[in-house]
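Treating backbone geometry as a discrete language has practical consequences that deserve illustration. Part of our work consisted of pairing the sequence of a single chain with a tokenised description of its backbone. We regard such an encoding as a compact summary of how the chain folds. The amino acid sequence and the backbone structure tokens for this protein are reproduced below.
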Amino acid sequence: MWIWRAKRCSNDGLHEKTKMSELNKLFKERKKNKKSSFIGFVTSGDPNYKSSKEIMKEMTKYCQVIEAGVSFNTSTSDSPIIMEANDRAIKSGMNMSKTFKLINEVKKETKTDTPFVLMTYLNPIIVYGIKKFIRSCQKTGIAGVIIVDASLNSPEEKFIINGLTKKNIGYIKIISPTNSEKFIQSSIKNCKNSWIYITSYYGLTGSKNVNIQNVRKLVKIVRKYSKDIPIGVGFGIKTSKQIKDVSKYADATIVGSAIVNKIKEGTENGKYGRNLATFIGSYLKKLTK
């Protein structure tokens, strides 16, 4: 059992005006041109390091943001599809350090300006070291961080948010249909240099189809407290039509399980490396048209 005690830290100054982050610039520019953004998720290192690198390089052609999951075998909101991807990545030797190395290589080899966002859990960060994690994010050029199980305003979250904010790295909070308005309002305050991640339903990612009614309801609540913060919607988005429908309300659509499932399909058909990346690229081209 891992126990971490943070020094008492103040959130004072967190919400002061800060330099515009990479994510803020992206969403502002897209909004100016009346365009929504497409965010694609993959588990880093799935099905192996080399193939994952090729897939991410291919994704830079179609995604405005790439969400890279850090493999973890005790996740709480991932579907069996993504849990299997985590298992494949862990089996191939993937960990936090290799995730940073992988993303750094993708950015260098493609010379892409596509922002990368890390999705992870608190435990891997604590094991890696919180200060070390923040330094590695800055060194790698990570644009934002999503911590699925971080408790609102816990000492750990405050420490991480302050550290990331000082480095001009976005912190993205997930909200779902079961969250209270008070939780949503507090989450918005913590995400001033990134976006709010709305899940279209409560449950495991990719386990259902997107719930547009929930999307409309949550977007309305978020806009009640902030007219400007970008909104990304995920969970259950699998088709071009669903992307189009969600884009009517959100600044970004997030597709994860559907992409990860395609990776599984490709590997089951014997595709790895560049062949697997091309297979995923063809799917993304159709999905984002």
The two ends are 46 Å apart (CA to CA). The beta strands are 37-43, 65-69, 116-120, 144-147, 170-175, 196-199, 231-234, 252-255.
